[in-house]
Amino acid sequence: MPKIAGVQSGQIARIDRRNRIPLALQIYDRIRTAIDTRALMPGARVASARVLASELGVARGTVEAAYQRLAGEGYLLARGPAGTIVSPNLPVSSRGVPEVHGLALGGASAASHGRETRSVASAPPLPLQLGIPALDAFPRKVWSRLAGRRARATLPADFGYGDPTGEAALKQAIAAYLLVSRGVACRPAQIFVTSGYRASLALAAAALLERGDAVWIEDPCYPPTRAVLECASMAVTPVPVDREGLDVTRGRTLAPHARLAVVTPSHQAPLCVSMTAARRLMLLEWAAKANAWIVEDDYDGEFHYAGPTLPALKSLDSSDRVLYAGSFSKTLFPALSLGYLVVPDALVPRVDRAVRAAPGCGARMTQAVAADFLAQSHFARHLKKMRLLYAKRRDWLAQALRTTFGERIEIDQTRGGMHLIVRVRGRVSDRTLARRAQQAGLNCQPLSERYASARAGEKGILMGFTNVASLREAGAIVRRLGEAWAAD
Predict the structure, then answer these.
(1) What is the mean pLDDT of the chain?
(2) Which letter does DSSP use for residue 415 in this model?
(3) 333-362 pLDDT, tens per residue?
(4) What 8-state DSSP symbol labels residue 292?
């Protein structure tokens, strides 16, 4: 059945031809119920009488009779060639929403017009939430212009499935960006577009590993890394991270026959330390000698605030053992659901086979708009703007924390990343402090939970700063945090 305004007509109460109530009255009653219960919102456009009659299998005059009565009672407003809409001046009804939602009428429904739905869908990130870029600073007008231009230029062939490895224009734009900005030299054929980091890691595991293979992960680590690998039935080995990054020597001791290592060398997730040059070379040497692979998760390598931006580990990879995973969730916006995996030349056929056995990589139109955003230098300008903005917002939050808590806290001084690590002096655990903050509507996280063994891990509170819009807002957030932590 046709799907209109997010509701299938087969999901609603059907017209009952055996009922003694006239069909026009049944249609009238159901549309009025949809309006009264706000399944159809004021201003929503309803389907034409011809379209609705065809969908319901009734005469056009039957629908027109129902529409005329609704218009006469003020529920609908006819606008000639512009169509018929629900009257925008209707009072709020006290009638409850029925179990079966209103009639699918071809206009906008509560999903697009309802106040309750809109407030949930458009809710800003909670204060101190991790991993969310500055949504208020994204160039929405530029993106909308590019999307509109792409939509107008769409050809019939563009409605097909496309290349499962990703749109050629996007892969070309990614290759150019990586060479200039991250020092990663690759051909577009080596790039596989995915729906994000998790999909990229799952793709690498499917192409390279067998069930039960040993894999090094960082300890502490980004939780989805472990989840994806364990879901793929890999033997996950947490390897300690110190101030120099992943301890390769410990990894060799803990799992000497590992087939893969997953690392975040630019800004370790979550400690934000950068892997030293000596450790990088040691890790590459291990992979080459062990015939193993490395997945480099460069999730926010662009956001470096002190000194030059660090090169990607992949740029040092003379033995071609590194698979480079990038994502636009942190650099653009999470709803884009777009990432990519750069693989060594020798792995292209193997990864290509894995891709063709996996779900698709995402909407072609979205990929085309992202390609334009990169190719026309909007991406580079956006990143430059975000580096300056994030440095400022990080300072605002750190200043507010020091003003409120003074010597009771210590803030890790890292050179990059999208969050702060705050160490709180005292006997209260970081889990308890994080829980109290969350109960106050502040979405910070305990560092200890990122370790394989929370008892052995360091304690601290992870606080995102990217959406702290001003020093004043930072002060208000930290005062709420202080009140939450002072509560019994």
Answers:
(1) 87
(2) S
(3) 999 999 999 999 999 999 999 998 876 666
(4) -
Determine the Cα angle at 87 with ends 11 and 34, to 5°.
20
Reading the block at residue 262, the tokens are: 């997953």
- Over residues 265-282, mean pLDDT: 94
Q: Name which residue leads in pLDDT, 39 or 99.
A: 39
Closest CA to 415 of 274, 244, 297: 274
HSE-up (13 A, CA, CB side) for residue 28: 18
- C-alpha to C-alpha distance for 94 and 190, rounded to whole angstroms: 59
Question: How far is the CA of 451 from the CAs of 34, 263, 413, 460, 487, in angstroms?
Answer: 51, 15, 20, 12, 27
> Is the pTM of the predicted complex or chain greater than 0.70?
yes
CA nearest to 298, candidates 399, 390, 389, 184: 184
Q: Which two tokens stand for residue 423?
A: 């160490």
CA distance 414 to 418: 10
Out of 41-50, 136-145, 448-457, 460-469, least confident range: 448-457
- Whether the predicted pLDDT of 67 surpasses 50: yes
**170: pLDDT strictly greater than 50:** yes
Give 176-186 pLDDT, tens digit per residue: 999 988 899 99
Other Cβ atoms less than 10 A from the Cβ of 24: the count is 19
Q: What is the DSSP string of 311-343?
A: PPGGGG-TT--EEEEEESTTTT-GGG--EEEE-
Would you say the C-alpha torsion 18, 24, 28, 34 has a positive or negative sign?
positive
Tokens 């305004």 map to which residue? 5
Close Cβ partners of 413 (under 8 Å, ≥ 6 residues apart):
none
Q: What are phi and psi of 302, to 5 degrees?
A: -75, -20
Helix (H, G, I), strand (E, B) or coil at 247: coil
**What are the strands, taking DSSP E only, across 343-393?**
none
| DSSP β-bridge partners for residue 421 | 462
Residue 276 pLDDT exceeds 70:
yes
Q: Which residues pair with 455 in a beta bridge?
A: none
CB atoms closer than 10 angstroms to residue 249? 13
Could you give all domains of the chain from N- to C-terminal order, each with its CATH number? Answer: 3-121 (1.10.10.10), 161-376 (3.40.640.10), 382-486 (3.90.1150.10)
The alpha carbon dihedral of 424, 425, 430, 433 has a sign of: negative
**Amino acid of residue 333:** F
Q: Above 70 in pLDDT, residue 363?
A: yes
Residues 237 and 231 sit within 8 Å (Cβ to Cβ): no
Instruction: Compute CA distances 270 → 133, 234, 306, whole Å.
Output: 16, 22, 18
DSSP E strand boundaries for 256-375: 260-263, 293-297, 322-327, 339-342
C-alpha–C-alpha distance, residues 231 and 208, integer Å: 15
Distance CA 44, CA 103 (A): 13
CB atoms within 10 A of CB 42: 17
Task: Return d(Cα 406, Cα 204) in angstroms, integer.
Answer: 46
